[in-house]
Structure prediction request, 305 residues.
Amino acid sequence: MAFASVNGKTAIVSGAGAGINLCFAKLLLSHGCNVVFADLALRPEAQQVVDAYATGSPRAVFQQTDVRIWTQLDRMFVTCEKEFGAADIVCPGAGVYEPLFSNFWIPPGTHPCLDSPTDDRYAAMDINVTHPIRVTQLAISHFLKHKRPGNIVHISSIAAQNPGILYPLYTASKYAISGFVRSLAGLEQPKSDIPTIRVTAVAPGVVKTPLWTANPEKLKWIDEAVDDWVAPEEVAERMLDLILKKEYVGGTVLEVAKGHARLVENVNDPGPPKVPGMTVSSRGDGQEEVWQKLASPGWGTASRS
Prediction:
């Protein structure tokens, strides 16, 4: 259900140490909402926010969290209950963008990938898919326990409509999130005395966050003379809209570019339009790197040695 306001409410935001999630946490605080910052660590700008809201109302608290570890995800809710009583808003926002440590084109067991060929998992999928699914389960349980309505806001991507050979794991993860969010649309109209729970997602374009700026191998795909960024603050504003606006019912996936927001249809969607913040001009350079990797002797076999 749409909240009339977030003033006096409480949110849990994973990945709040930087980027879109930090901007969302700051926006919620500015509207009077308490926030549990859950992340491995806080970047300096995030630490400043937590320090600024350490006392008074609203308030921010930091809970160190590795989102790959389910007991630490549960601890986010325990901390929230201890500090604030209960959560009203949950954003399982932590994510990675085909990082070198868990990259489809750098198979497990080959440098610099940290995925092990004996661990039976990709860290990128644990972070981007398993973590938000598990947090959603925990959030639903939390709302039922406290008998209160809730909002769960996910972060998908235009990659779910605009797949590319550069980022197969990321694309798969965002397809999963969009489909997962749509599958939970019915929670906004439950039967009997079950509280109403709205599950939605934003699907941003190319957002200027550390997922790009702290990764030189990806940043080189962008020509800032011709390419536009989506500001993370703009994405955060649309995330707040998903909580406050009646028209954004459960199952909504809202595409966000620079100065642009559009509902993504479940079927027969035309795909992302050609608006600022939707593309990177040097994408072809990255594709050439893929061919070079595949041309290397023994690609994908190092993990068997």
Remarks:
- Residues 10-297 form a domain with the Rossmann fold fold (CATH 3.40.50.720).
- The radius of gyration is 19 Å.
- Residues 131 and 285 are 32 Å apart (CA to CA).
- The first strand starts at residue 10 and ends at 14.
